[in-house]
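To assess whether the prediction recovers the assembly geometry, we first specified each molecular entity separately, as shown.
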Amino acid sequence: MPQPIYLDHAATTPVRPEVVDAMTPFFGPRFGNPSSAHRWGREARVALDEARERLARCLGANTDEICFTSGGTESDNLAILGAWRALRATKVAVVTTPIEHKAVLAAAHQVAREGGEERIVDVDRGGIVIPGSFDLAVDNRVAICSVMWVNNEIGVLQDIPKLASIARERGALFHTDAVQAFGKVTIDASSIPFDALSISGHKLGAPKGVGAMYLRRGTPLEPLMHGGMQDRGRRPGTENVAMAVGLARAAELALAEREAEGARLARLRNRLEEALLSRIPDALVHGRNAPRAPHILNISVPGTDSESLLMALDMQGVACSAGSACQSGNLTPSHVLTAIGVRHDLATAAIRMSFGSLSAEEDVDRVAQLFPALIVKARRLAGATL
Amino acid sequence: MPSQPIPGTPSGRPRVLVAMSGGVDSSVAAALLHEQGYDVIGATMKLFCYGDTVPDRPCCSLDSIDDARRVCQRLGIPHYVLNLEAPFSHDVVDDFVSEYARGRTPIPCVRCNTFTKFRDLVRRADGFDAGFVATGHYARVIDGALHRGRDPAKDQSYFLWGIDRAALRRLLLPVGGLTKAETRDVARSLGLDVVSEKVESQDICFVPDGDHVKVIRARLGDDAPALARGPILHVDGRQVGVHDGYARYTIGQRRGLPGGFDEPLFVVEIRPADRAVIVGPRERLLGHGLVARELNWLGSAPTLGTLVTVQARHRARAVEAEVVRMGTEELELALQEPLSAIAPGQSMVLYAGERVVGGGVIERAAGPRASLPVRAA
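The predicted structure of the complete assembly is given in tokenized form:
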């Protein structure tokens, strides 16, 4: 078996050694509970406050606007359900798009189950929200809008500054799932009028199980959990100091490297994309004509299927995924690809390759060699079973 | 392990795709092949989905997929989930439902072996460049011929008569030479704690709680004739009761019939045309012959007048029979001794000693032979 190649950074990333180092003391000598009045407690409180400050700085935010959570899913749910429940007496609707992460879509469905109204705006064939459709959906009955900054399956980039401004004009709150956007695009709460934003640690070199929600000062929110007054009551429960420290460190590192790393990943992605398109002329790259984040390549080849291709790639040591990391054996085509009008047979053939810290030029060149050969074989076998 | 490496297999070792249900038999099959030096790939077939309606099932649920994955992890072999829901639904579940609708008693496991495992899975094996396919069935391939498993209590050869004979040369059945107890011993000795003490599933995997009516209702709707009220008629012509759908009955069944008769009554016939379930005394269940269709031969087909051993139900005793009519579509056997409750839709499997000759789907029981075999002109 040759050296394995990891092309699934949009699913998760390895924890960076610097992050492990930053976290380690909090599993050992600095174990205190930040709410305790004694020296152990004070020490933990200082570390937590510092982490919050540093993460706030990464987002152009005030310290009190950062709420640590267990990850992207919790942040999305807390922002959407929390804000809607706080406002439901006067504003019943939520607005979102058909290409959101399941955490956002499921939260919006929950709003509908609780008697609210779920409005889904249209996206074009590139996956970009159609401004007219958004414009039409956002009126004074809308509590909160949620639009994903960078799509996790196809990488397309929404015009968040513009959409957030429209929402603000209409008196609606605006949330963005920035789980794939952080470290890839400029996120500045002081100049872009979003009210809430979600990030996830394990997409940027922090462990799984930690994330954060940005919540602009004064934004109404009903917490999902009830308990103590930690995190201003927004997220009760003893704070996970080590994880908060790790997330802050990872965010700082990602931000410091953003431009150089973004350019490097774009080069790798484009190199592979061009190689594959030239060797497989009928391949289709989803979102290719839309603005895209640099780290995601989603490709479908007619006459193949994702399940078989992923296994064949894995047998060659190449790790990718079909759309998002899905439940075992789920063959339903991606809701994202379906929403942007991709044909069923192409949607069930999609392979997502996502680049990051582990990606190197040699990997790209090996995949560029190997992938077309697997396609030839997959098509031959598919033809044989017809 | 074959002495010669198979040319063209990437590792230089023969590669085998093992169908792993997450149970002890297929786990041990994978473990034994791995020990014997095969390049083993584990695959769990996802065949159906209950959705949210049924919590957990011993087979084919995601928990079972997780168990298979853990066994593979322990063995250090790759594991994949193969989604075969669409073809399984078409080849196995649709047929299951339509057979009940026709008043027959299907065996979905036979069709799953024929189509899902030994056709679709074999095709998937090609995608993995795997020369062999293995399962945890209690049956044996000896010199290219399918035989009963060594453990008579566990023998599953009855379910395998329909497979493509070309698949036999690629088929490995590592537990076929073991008893169930030995299989569990192997599992324990290899530390496969995840599966070694697992309770065996006796139900049909896609039928929740053993209630096949649920599946029929889900496919055909509440108003399907097979689930509608109909008469229970005695063989002497009297109506002795009503039933709530003939699909709830099978030949030989006693449960769900009216009592209060001099002798116990059994279902002897199901007649979809007037939705009637016909009942009669035990002796009316005896068949002296049978007619079968959808024939498949794993060796050379028997000829007219051949004496064979036939088994007409799983775990039923096999009896001697003579081929009295033989066509490409249909075969008729005269039984040397009568068999009870020959049910249309079940399989009849012909054996020569331990070897499976082939089989077919029972069309109907036939009367005792009236005369000498009719030889084709």
